[in-house]
Each structure stands twice: as structure tokens, then as C-alpha cells.
Write a structure and sequence with these properties.
The protein is α+β, with helices and mostly antiparallel strands. About 15% of the residues lie in helices and about 45% in strands.
Length: about 190
């Protein structure tokens, strides 16, 4: 490509609990065009697919404000300062579900939205999970723990019970596919 992007300035314009907003001003050469681009500056995230010895996936159901409904997801959250992604995934698993894992391995990482975000989402698989304690969700989290067979996940995706793209991506890294997902009529959620 002959185009070249030159960063001219970067300034933070807002700070929120889970992200900051900044404007990055770029010049596009050779045309000399300049423009501000909005960037959500967020910490890295993690998702973890917890499987019990019996082949059950430990899912969580919670309300998501962006789409204003409850969804089924895998445990996940932000990587705290000083944590590795693996430590964050295991912490989120225990806090949100009360489960701990015998083994954990990295499935992969994705860039959630490289057009406006600079963070990564790391996805892990946790094997032989067992219930250790009651969940310890954050103050504004209301989480229901749901166990389901791994084989049911494609149907949950097809029926739009699992809609979070990063959760679906974690299952895709595992090789769990959802044949015919786009052919179905969406169900009403709420």
C-alpha cells in the first residue's frame, strides 16, 4: 500500500470505569488529509470456557445493558493491573461461578474491534472444573450459573441464546460450530 498514516496528536477526552476515550489525530500521506479518530482505550479482556469432567459447560446468564436483555455467556472480564491473562481468567471463573479448574490452556486471542479499540481478548479452555464455593459476583452483577452439555452450544447460538461475538469466537477456537445459524429466524429475547 502506498498510503502512510502519521500520528500527529493523541489526547484523552473522557474517562469511565472500564475504558477511556481518546482522539488520535492522523495525517494520511501522500494526500495530506488530516482527521481525528475516536479510540476506546480499554484493558485487555479474558473469556474462559469451563468444562466439567462430565462434559458440561459452565455458563452464566446475566443482563447486558447494550442490548437490554439477558444472555448466556462464558465467564470473563478485564485483566487487572499486574495480572496475566490466565490469572484473570481463573479469577473471573471463580468469582462469577464458584468453579475452579484442574487445567487451563490458551485457545487464542482476538482484537475485539480494531477499528476503534486497541485491546485484546484472550480465550481459555478450563478442563475438569468443579464447584468449590458460592459465586462472588461484583456489586452490580446478577449472575445465574447454568450448566449445559457442550453439544447443546451450537443450538444455543442458533437460537440466539448465546449472542456475544467473543463468546462465540471462543467456541469457534474449540471447533464447536453452528451449522445453519444464519438460516434460522431470530427468537424474541427479554
Amino acid at each position: 500500500m502506498s498510503a502512510h498514516w502519521q500520528l500527529l496528536d493523541s489526547r484523552q477526552v473522557a474517562e469511565h470505569r472500564i475504558f477511556r476515550i481518546r482522539y488520535d489525530r492522523y495525517r494520511l500521506e501522500p494526500e495530506g488529509l488530516e482527521r481525528d479518530f475516536v479510540v476506546l482505550d480499554a484493558p485487555d479482556w479474558v473469556n474462559i470456557v469451563p468444562l466439567t469432567a462430565e462434559g458440561q459447560v459452565v455458563l452464566i446468564r446475566q443482563f447486558r445493558h447494550g442490548i437490554r436483555c439477558h444472555t448466556l455467556e462464558i465467564p470473563g472480564g478485564m485483566v487487572d493491573r499486574g495480572e496475566t491473562p490466565e490469572q484473570a481468567a481463573l479469577r473471573e471463573l471463580q468469582e462469577e461461578t464458584g468453579y475452579v479448574a484442574q487445567r487451563v490452556r490458551l485457545l487464542g486471542r482476538i482484537s475485539p474491534n480494531p477499528a476503534i479499540q486497541g485491546n485484546w481478548c484472550y480465550m481459555f479452555l478450563a478442563d475438569e472444573c468443579r464447584l468449590l464455593e458460592q459465586p462472588r459476583p461484583e456489586e452490580f452483577e446478577r449472575i445465574e450459573v447454568v450448566l449445559c452439555p457442550l453439544a447443546d452450544v451450537p443450538e444455543l447460538i442458533r437460537r440466539e441464546q448465546i449472542v456475544n461475538a467473543m463468546v462465540i469466537n471462543a467456541f469457534a477456537f474449540m471447533g464447536v460450530v453452528c451449522a445453519g445459524a444464519t438460516a434460522a429466524q431470530p427468537e424474541r429475547r427479554g
